[in-house]
Design brief:
The complex is a heterodimer of chains A (about 350) and B (about 250). Chain A is mostly helical and about 350 residues long. Chain A has one domain. Helices cover about 70% and strands about 0% of the residues of chain A. Chain A contains 15 helices and two strands. A two-stranded antiparallel ribbon of chain A has the order 1-2. In chain A, strand 1 and strand 2 form a beta hairpin. In chain B, the strands form two sheets. Chain B has a six-stranded mixed beta sheet with strand order 6-7-8-3-9-10, with helices on both faces. Chain B has a four-stranded antiparallel beta sheet with strand order 2-1-4-5, covered by helices on one side. Chain B starts with a strand and ends in a 7-residue tail after the last helix. Chain B contains ten helices and ten strands. Chain B folds into two domains: about 150 residues, P-loop containing nucleotide triphosphate hydrolases (Rossmann fold), CATH 3.40.50.300; about 70 residues, no CATH class. In chain B, strand 4 and strand 5 form a beta hairpin. Classes of the chains: A mainly alpha (about 350), B alpha/beta (about 250). At the A-B interface, helix 7, helix 8, helix 9 and helix 10 of A face helix 2, helix 3 and helix 4 of B.
Chain lengths: ~350, ~250
């Protein structure tokens, strides 16, 4: 008989020790990243993709819904940011809200059509809608710039009224993204531990039971998908800023597959932090292995196969399982593991 | 007046008639048993009562109010709870959390995204009380999937009880239990009797005849006999069929 420990106090916290440690470490990245042969822009990419993967995992991990066309919302956020800046108002906050809202709207529209489904049917519908958005992005040349992309997107200054920060420098932009990332992580952590988040997690385990307990399963599935799409769109808006452009390729099926791979490799199904672990491994592998061979995807693909075959719970799951096995290490290491991987309740 | 009532319920799937015409009226506080051979349509009838299946004809009324064809979450919110023959629990959740999700107070906060669920001790306390009534208080923190089969059966009922239902529908609560388990469950259900209106599908005749106020025998999609356990033991149809073995 396995006894789960009493709900860790982390569940009730807005900021957990793990978050503080992660943020502190991330805050030092610009100081040393160049010294280890990498570059500050990689840090920006990692943060943005981490935000995107965490948002994606609200659907895959928390709600258990396989969405394989999530790149659409990331891309829509990027285009919305650029188009808002060109056609509405060149204000950072307005354009980020636009990225969030437009992607959320697209997500809500799709959710209307898919939320009565589950499993393979759900997955196929998300792919189909993802492909529709991708095609629209490529074909609407006049709006999106087609395959050339929407170019010359500016990193608008972060204006706080009393002070305004120029984000053109990669280090300044990195810290700006880090602050947004930290806020979004807090919000998503709280969301997954709120009554709403627990109901969504219950629906993942049994839609039937949840319905007979009086929960409108459809509304919960539709709303978590919409929220996830909106936060993915926010990440997409930041990505447009990072790249100074928005391209349709992030909306393609294979780029939508990347976020699934990252999340699964990292262990998003068992841990809140899994997607972040996956993004780190994926992007660093891309740069490090990619510097040695063009075929880096081959090696990452092999890693992916190995993980799916032998450690389907992903890196976060494997690490915490290893700690479970060695009870001696466990005694000393458990708190550290919980710190890193968000505690037992995610196992 | 009957608390829960079915009138002329007819269900067909394609050209297959599953329920011909079923009438049932269960007054408040009654324990009503449903029995009949496999495939008689008992579970389908339950699915109609709890909103999983929409009847092709006929009415379901709860406290005089027409609830025919309402979706299951609406009917549940009206106070009809059910347990499942094939256990349907939140396996990754602890026993306590399974029950917590069932509480109407928790459901009322189902769209609360701003507060941590665990920060409200009221939920945990109410859940613990309910777990205590089914004898699972000391296993509150065990994950549902790690509980023994008998404990899972008890948790099935605890989750339904968490809803503070007006009508409790039990679909073969003793299914798969050994004789010890059946006794334990009979004791539990016996304690609920009288406090709740209960409709129970059950194959275990001893269990049903000891507990039920009235029993309906369903066969070929209709009620072929109905009465108190004593009356049914005299019923010719029941005596002649294999169902009469218990007598």
């Amino acid at each position: 008989m396995t006894i789960t420990p009493p709900p860790s106090s982390d569940a009730t916290r807005l900021v957990t020790p793990a978050m503080l440690v992660l943020w502190l470490v991330l805050a030092t990245v610009p100081l040393w990243i160049a010294k280890v042969g990498l570059y500050p822009y990689l840090g920006i990419e990692i943060l943005i993709w981490s935000l995107y993967a965490l948002a994606f995992n609200l659907v895959l991990g928390t709600a258990g819904l396989p969405s394989f066309g999530h790149g659409a919302y990331f891309g829509i956020g990027a285009y919305a940011f650029g188009l808002c800046q060109f056609n509405v108002v060149a204000n950072l906050w307005v354009c980020l809200v636009a990225a969030f809202a437009v992607a959320g709207l697209a997500g809500a529209l799709v959710a209307l059509f898919i939320s009565h489904r589950r499993g393979i049917y759900y997955a196929f519908m998300t792919i189909a809608f993802g492909q529709i958005f991708w095609t629209l992005a490529i074909k609407s040349h006049g709006i999106t710039g087609g395959e050339d992309g929407l170019l010359k997107i500016a990193r608008l200054p972060a204006d706080f009224g009393v002070a305004s920060f120029n984000l053109n420098d990669n280090v300044a932009f990195y810290y700006f993204v880090l602050v947004l990332f930290a806020l979004a992580v807090m919000a998503m952590w709280r969301l997954t531990h709120s009554p709403y988040g627990r109901v969504v997690a219950a629906i993942k385990q049994s839609e039937t039971r949840a319905a007979h307990l009086g929960y409108n399963v459809w509304i919960y599935k539709a709303s978590i998908f919409t929220l996830s799409a909106a936060i993915s769109g926010l990440a997409g808006g930041l990505f447009a800023m990072a790249q100074l452009a928005a391209f349709p390729d992030v909306m393609s099926l294979h780029q939508s597959g990347y976020v699934v791979m990252m999340t699964l490799v990292g262990g998003g199904l068992v841990s809140f932090w899994g997607p972040v672990v996956g993004v780190f491994v994926f992007l660093i592998a891309r740069d490090v292995i990619g510097a040695l061979t063009n075929a880096w995807m081959l090696y990452f693909g092999l890693l992916f196969i190995a993980i799916v075959l032998f450690r389907p719970e992903g890196i976060a799951g494997a690490v915490s399982a290893a700690f479970q096995k060695h009870s001696l290490i466990r005694r000393q290491g458990n708190s550290a593991m919980r710190l890193l991987f968000g505690g037992e309740r995610w196992r | 007046m009957a608390l829960i009532e079915a009138a002329g319920v007819h269900v067909r799937f394609g050209d297959r008639v599953v329920l011909e015409s079923i009438d049932l009226a269960v007054p408040e506080g009654e324990f009503h048993g449903l029995m009949g051979p496999n495939g008689a349509g008992k579970t389908t009838f339950f699915n109609v009562l709890t909103g999983r299946v929409k009847p092709s004809r006929g009415k379901v009324r709860l406290d005089g109010k027409d609830v025919t064809g309402l979706s299951s979450h609406r009917i549940a919110a009206h106070g009809v709870a059910r347990s499942f023959q094939i256990m349907t629990l939140f396996d990754e959740f602890s026993a306590r959390e399974n029950v917590t999700v069932g509480l109407p107070a928790f459901r009322a906060r189902g769209f609360d995204m701003r507060h941590a669920a665990a920060s409200d001790p009221g939920f945990a306390e109410s859940a613990l009380e309910i777990l205590a009534t089914v004898g699972l208080a000391d296993k509150a923190d065990v994950r549902a999937k790690d509980l023994s089969y008998g404990d899972r059966r008890a948790l099935e009922i605890a989750v339904a009880l968490a809803q503070s239902p007006r009508v409790l529908c039990l679909d073969e609560p003793t299914s798969g239990l050994g004789s010890d388990g059946v006794q334990r469950l009979a004791a539990l259900v016996g304690r609920l009797k009288g406090k709740l209106t209960i409709v129970a599908i059950e194959h275990d005749m001893e269990f049903l005849f000891a507990l039920a106020d009235r029993i309906s025998v369903i066969h070929w999609g209709q009620v072929v006999a109905r009465g108190t356990p004593q009356e049914l033991q005299q019923n010719e149809w029941v005596r002649r069929s294999n169902l009469g073995r218990f007598a």
